[in-house]
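Minutes, project check-in

Agenda point 3 was the complex the collaborators sent over. CS summarized: two entities, 631 residues total, and the question is how they sit relative to each other. Sequences were read into the notes so everyone works from the same version.
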Amino acid sequence: MDLCDYAAYQLAWMIRRKQVSAVEVLESTLNRIAAVDGVPGRLDGGQDTEPDKIHAFITLTAERARQQAQRIDQAIQAGEEVGPLAGVPFTVKDIFCVEGTPSTAASKILSNFVAPYTATPVARAEQAGGIMLGKVNLDEFTFGSSNESSAYRPSPRNPWNTARVPGGSSGGSAAAVAAGEGCLSIGTDTAGSIRQPAAFCGVVGLKPTYGRVSRYGLIAFGSSLDCPGPLARNVSDAALLLQVMSGADPHDSTAANFPVPDYVTDLEKPIRGLRIGLSPDYFRITYVEGESGELAQQPVPEDYQQAIYRVAGRLAEMGADIIEDVPMPHTKYSIPAYFVISRVEAASNLHRYDGVKYGYRTKQPVHDLREMYRKTRGEGFGLQPKLRILMGMYVSAAQYSEQYYMRALRVRTLIRRDFEAIFDPQGKYRLHALLTPTTPTTAFPIAQVYGDSVLMQFADQLTVAANHAGVPAISFPCGFDPEGLPYGAQLIGADFSEDLLLRIARNYEIVTESDQWRKRIPPILQNL
Amino acid sequence: MITPELFDHLVELAALELSPTEAEYLRQQLNNQLKALQELVAIPLQESIPPALHGVSFPAEIRPPIREDEWLPSSQVEAILKQAPELDERYIVVPDIPHQDLE
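CS then shared the predicted structure for the full assembly.
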């Protein structure tokens, strides 16, 4: 076990006590990156390059990180007060602006954009003493669930099996954290983009309540759904990062003016008497069958279901009350509603990329401005942004918007009401959290799903309802399937109940601490 | 069903230029996605159900006030200008803007 494999909270503690320096921790992490990451993603890179490496990074900013680490060490030597993340290395999904770094959104259209300012969540992590290692890969503009749509190739691979996807869109974040390339990562979640890759890579990922963490400096996808949040190897580290990122921000009027509780201190408080629900609507997926367009239902694989029931059993051992058969009848409409709402918001947000003020501009000769727009956008955007723009324009067109967009927004109300009903303290169920599988399957093979945009979207079926409703949710590892791939368990809670979700997940870590599966490490780390 | 004609219209509105292979793939994917939306169109919805623009309600007590619309100087003007694809001194250059002369 190297320094880079320690938990963030342990490293922060050791660095503050001068048992180890921030520079030593950083160098250990950079060595790990050199050993496992391989070439970074590039616009002219090949997908099959170094198939046994992780490829989490787009831009590694080692020198910038060294300067930050030296400043932390100097501050500690001088006896100055340092923040709770002092010396802890973290990565940032390349959808956030970080001053002076290429901020690409994994798209050719922003490939030459260097951000002139830093996003609030990243700035707060740096103010807390965190060491920013660089920018990690994602699906282009976050549009995907596998990272295969990134314009920067090779796209990241799963540390548990490099022939599998890391999930997405925060796939670089999850893969990096799982492989010891930084203890923490800041990701974003619009339909499951933190939780699904966290589940696939066997790490912890938390989507906060909409408005808990500022979106200032986040390159927007679905503005009513996007949530920045932490990825980490354990629950305590996720709590630590959430703590420093949360809170109101004068730069984002949707960042709620709601007090930030202490997420760390009460993590290990008992969960006796907490009511945790299981819903049959989260143990099956509803999807559209290929050519016919007919609706079909399929149970989540039996072994995955059993993994979640085992989590419920362990939580019951800790004194939680498990409530079965909780109805969530509108969950199955989450994906169709998302197909509409997210596309409309994406199309609107992507109109700003036009080759005029910044970013890529076509090199071809053009006659006029319209032609420059068309060629720039045609060359600069990959297939997934184009698909979202076209769909967004179609479903919000005057003649269709009543049928699609307005309807989707009203269905969103129904999805929200499902959650309000089960979390209502005076209601029939009075739940503190809903326990579900995070994903319909464990990590799928590279190239198996990509290309079928409908099938890929259904990877988010169990996560996206929380985005529609705005409620917080956490994914944490709960064992491995027969092929050695991690299972993820999800807890969804009421508005601003991140503290409860973290506490339940931490209690699960405590009760499973000596389980055999907890001793496993990703194969790629075994022979270092 | 998105016909080739409707598709071309959307492409024009979206200010995109597509290769024929891209166009064929995208049109087919759009139609597949529309099939997935049939379910949405079929959901029985009572008239009284309002649209939700976002999930979490933002009551006044947690909604930050809109800040003043103030002019603030930036220290990054040169860095920002340098990112423009084409500059003439401090002006950003674009190709001819299509226009119609008013009578």
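Noted in discussion: The first helix of chain B runs from residue 4 to 13.
Follow-up: revisit at the next meeting once the mutant set is ready.
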